Amino acid sequence: MFKLFRLTAILEGISYLALFAVTMPLKYMADLPMPNKYVGYAHGVLFIAYIILAIIFWFEKKWSIKKGIILLVASLLPFATFYVDSRYLKTVEA
């Protein structure tokens, strides 16, 4: 469960950055909407999976409300899932 959550967190962060840094400029500057569509679908699935796994992981580890909120808010901010991985998830694994 833990490795799946870590992998999902990293992939969700990558898909979020790819969506904003690569496919959105392609859509609006180069008039190529298709990459945005597929990366958007992938990001949507990863976002939902991250939220579900974060809630499960939060209750499984019996973390405080503060840590749980940080896990959930991280899905909304660019680079935040990488922060959660390095700050909270790597320490759990060690």
UniProtKB/TrEMBL annotation:
The keyword Oxidoreductase does not apply. It is found in: Cell membrane. This is DUF3817 domain-containing protein. Its main location: membrane. It is a multi-pass membrane protein. NCBIfam families: integ_memb_HG (TIGR03954). Pfam families: DUF3817. PANTHER family: MEMBRANE PROTEIN, MEMBRANE PROTEIN-RELATED. The chain crosses the membrane at residues 7-26, 38-59, 68-84. The keyword Transmembrane applies. Keywords: Cell membrane, Membrane, Transmembrane, Transmembrane helix.
